[in-house]
Amino acid sequence: NTIYKDRNFTTTGGQTVKMEHNEYGYRIDQEAEYQQLIQELAAGTVTEREPVYNKTGFQRNGTDDLCGTYIEVSISQQHLWLYKNGVLITETDVVTGKPTPEFETYKGAWTIAFKKSPYTLSSDIYGYKVPVNYWMPFVYGQGLHDLSTRKAFGGQIYKTNGSHGCINLPLDQAKIIYETIDAGYPILIY
Prior knowledge:
- With 190 residues, this protein is an alpha+beta fold.
- It has 3 helices and 14 strands.
């Protein structure tokens, strides 16, 4: 089981960070696995298989449930890296949520819920409707997306002109990410 447990993650820069909000990974369905084992023992056949899971990650190689395939976001560096099968596909400066209790970007290990292009972000609470080309949500209404009104990314912008928690991307980078990932893709934010 790798989901819902603290996770140590080695960043692109080589630092180990502890992910305390880990909603990405695998969890064995103990009852279903027990029933499957009973059936296999009764049949008396040799079986090699994956366990029965009730939660699954994007992929797994037996010892690791990232397999070099994930999105990494450093809030302090305001930077994103996209990996697929251990290869860096792209990296870019970003703007994350303003560091206030109301708008901060949630740290942790999540999954991309789905992706939609184009999409209109809206909020009755904050009174906005913003069309975006690429929308990739990961948790509690937060997601990755382009933002045409934002001309600069990275640095300290997020401290005074941050998002409402989303990770804003340059349009060209949003397109690359959107075309590379699928629903279930892991995203690790620290």
